[in-house]
Amino acid sequence: MRYAYLGPSGTFTEAALLQVPGADEAERVPAANVNEALAMVLEGSVDGAMVPIENSVEGGVSATLDAIARADHLQIVREVLVPITFVLAVREDIDALEQITQISTHSVAWAQCRGWVQANIPGAEFIQGSSTAAAAVGLQDPEQHHQAAICSPLVAHDRNLKVLVEGVEDNLGAVTRFFLVTRPGPLPAPTGVDKTTLIVPLPEDKPGALMALLEQFAARGVNLSRIESRPTGTGLGSYFFSVDIDGHLAEERVAAALTGLHRLCPDLKFLGSYNAAEGITPSIDSHNSNEAFIRAREWVGQLLHRL
Ligand SMILES: O=C(O)C(=O)C[C@]1(C(=O)O)C=C[C@@H](O)C=C1
Hints:
Its EC number is 4.2.1.51. The protein is of the alpha/beta class. The chain is built from 9 helices and 15 strands. It has helices spanning 12-17, 34-43, 62-70, 107-120, 132-138, 153-158, 209-218, 252-264, 290-304; strands spanning 2-6, 27-31, 48-55, 59-60, 75-84, 87-90, 102-105, 125-128, 148-151, 162-166, 174-182, 194-201, 224-231, 239-246, 269-275. The longest helix has 15 residues, at 290-304. The termini are far apart. The mean pLDDT is 95.
């Protein structure tokens, strides 16, 4: 197996990939950004790509949300959660925070440490890195000028970097959620604790369209665990919704909600049903159980026989 991930080695994305059974022995192919990793999946040069989707502090990773929403022929097959903590790694000749004028890291990492930097190294300039590990590796590159990098403790340790401060994040206990994305194939089997991800382009200028979307789920007892609106890119006022729901397509209530939603939004995209990384088995009212849907369908079927 070959998997793409945001490189170089030592990113949080690689840590997420290493949680996939067998990934430690698989070929791991570093990509420069999320789009490149997804392009490798689409062209078939890798079997899958690990991509960050959401951070508990910073919110949705818009680059990924947009890339997977726009690409056809991608499927989410697994969800992975990675606890996030950052260190401030520095060049060998740096001994004090006052010597630092430029700090490099990934923009999502910077957003999680900005408060600490402002309080402790006011005036330090942010140099955008393609990843936290790229910023860390850059400390050993004479061509790059930043004196410090915000990165994972693991990459600092593995690259033998000098760490000036540990735990520089503004919020303790942050978590980033990742998706393993492949070309479309068989759906992972339902486990009872699953999620389904959808891209819903709502009809424009239609009063109550969002309400109608939500009703499809509410009426079948399907819980939404994430809903974000993103611009389609075609002009102001044009949005799609990126939605996660609790449940698997194989569940009758989920299939029924998607059937209703498809009538409202025929361009609805199904990105996959997959095992939730954590969570409890949802409690389902008896009228939303598989049996209730099957009985109701049989009843209507019998009535139709009278035609
Ligand atoms: O730069 C990395 O190490 C990444 O894996 C990317 C990424 C992200 O895009 O959210 C992953 C997790 C952290 O929250 C910060 C950065």
